Amino acid sequence: MSFEFRRQSIPEVVLIRAKQFNDDRGYFMELHRRSAFESLGLELNFVQYNCSRSKRGVLRGLHYQLRPYEQGKLVTVIGNGRIFDVAVDIRAGSPTFGRWAGAELRGGLMLWVPPGFAHGFLALEDDIHVLYGVTGAEYRREAERGIAWNDPGIGIAWPGEHPIVSSKDAALPPLKNAEVNFVYAREGGLKA
């Protein structure tokens, strides 16, 4: 199989390792194959692809869109470099509400961040290119919301000190004051 799937401490968040095929020319790797992902219950219908470039120490997030414009994100690093990627459960009634799961991503590793989760990442090296496929809805400015990256109620263990944060992200509220409208659904698996 071209992929290994590993559920994280929050089971809906999945770390995915793509098999890389190397030779003297370089490498080849699949980032997504519908049948492989569906075998885990991940039916990803991408509506948008985003790419960002960041220097070391840049922290982006924690972002999400309100219902009915919620998004799932399949996040990976393109080329060399590493990020620390985080998903925070913001679904009311969820047994993991307010908890986070995170992983260090580099080429070949991806993190599935489901709808109903806030997302953010920290660039651990210079010139990091992050690509993420988005499911659900396309970006809508009026639906965009966020949570403070350093919310003590969540307690994310970001590596390093003094990240570079945009003024917009620095002004985001803690989860207890954030506008969220997601509700935990006991059925339905991991469909996006």
Account of the protein in words:
The protein is mainly beta and about 190 residues long. The chain has one domain (about 10-15, about 45-180): Jelly Rolls (Sandwich). Helices cover about 5% and strands about 45% of the residues. The two termini are about 20 Å apart. Residues about 190 have low confidence and may be disordered.
Order of helices and strands: EEEEHEEEEEEEEEEHE
The overall average pLDDT, rounded, is 93
CATH fold category name:
Jelly Rolls
- The first-level CATH class is given as Mainly Beta
CATH architecture type: Sandwich
The rounded distance between the terminal residues' Cα atoms is 22 Å
Please tally the helical runs, counting DSSP H or I stretches of 4 or more residues.
2
Count of spatially separate domains: 1
Q: Give me the Rg, rounded.
A: 16 Å
As a percent range, the share of helical residues equals under 10%
Structural class: mainly beta
Tell me the strand percentage band.
35-45%
List how many beta strands DSSP finds. 15
The side-by-side strand order for the widest beta sheet comes to: 1-2-11-7-13-5
pLDDT below 50 for ≥5 consecutive residues: which ranges? 188-192
What would you give as the CATH superfamily? Jelly Rolls
Give a short account of the largest sheet.
6 strands, antiparallel
Categorize the overall geometry: globular
